[in-house]
Write a structure and sequence with these properties.
alpha/beta, Rossmann fold, five-stranded mixed beta sheet, 6 helices
Length: about 240
């Protein structure tokens, strides 16, 4: 893609969709050519057919139908919708195939959060066990968060998981994701936070990231739009390869 990049936004009526529209419209080398948000006055997905890149922020229950539409249009797509676990990623890879267009699934657009995940991946083999506590606003639709799932998938603690003590109340120990326990907190007043605790006998390492305003996501969104063409055809996951991590 040379010159100005033409961008379409799906899920344009949601918080992240609106943020993306504002950021693209304010950026000289990007052009917002269309919005798609059924039920909010942007009902025709064909308006995005002329986009070089579509940014997808639709709800999890409609995102796969949207992705099928963008695949038919043969567009590059940056996916910010949460909830892409291994099963859904497999479904998307089957749908997308080998391209030639690129699809980038981004669990978290915060550059700081991407660095946090990279640090956790590097540290995990040196620790016996690990747990993740992710804390988000009370309107978040999914739990665990996509960031927590992506973090756990990259971590390989060195020890065997300890035998669990009996839970007085089911779920008290959280959910196990690939040998890492994940705990989800949903409270008003929070935005997006994650803490990773890694333990050895006699020591604990804590890695924490806090997002206090959604403007933190803008640099990552712009990076994904500008750089998606550099990726291999097909489906990729995460900003880390665009950041050299």
């Amino acid at each position: 893609m040379g010159g100005v990049i033409r961008v379409g936004v799906s899920g344009a009526a949601g918080r992240m969709g609106l943020l993306t529209c504002e950021a693209v419209a304010a950026t000289p080398d990007l052009e917002l050519i269309g919005r798609f948000a059924p039920g909010h006055g942007f009902d025709d997905g064909l308006v995005l057919a002329g986009a070089d890149v579509i940014v997808e922020f639709a709800r999890a229950d409609v995102v796969m139908a949207n992705m099928a539409m963008w695949r038919q249009m043969d567009r590059h797509v940056v996916v910010g919708t949460s909830g892409f676990d291994e099963a859904r990623l497999g479904e998307l890879q089957t749908l997308w195939g080998d391209g030639p267009q690129k699809c980038l699934v981004v669990p978290n657009f915060s550059l700081g959060a991407v660095i946090m995940m990279s640090l956790a991946e590097r540290a995990a083999p040196y620790f016996t066990a690990a747990e993740i506590v992710e804390l988000h606003h009370d309107r978040k639709a999914d739990a665990p968060s996509g960031t927590a799932l992506a973090t756990a998938a990259r971590m390989k603690p060195s020890g065997e998981r300890a035998v669990d003590s009996q839970e007085t109340f089911p779920g008290a120990r959280g959910a196990e994701v690939g040998g890492v326990w994940v705990h989800s907190v949903r409270l008003p007043g929070m935005l997006a936070h994650q803490e990773i605790l890694l333990g050895n006998p006699g020591e604990v390492l804590t890695i924490r990231h806090d997002t206090t305003d959604r403007t933190a996501f803008v640099p990552g969104i712009l990076l994904a739009i500008r750089s998606i063409e550099k990726l291999d055809p097909g489906v990729s996951v995460g900003l880390e390869r665009l950041m050299g991590l």
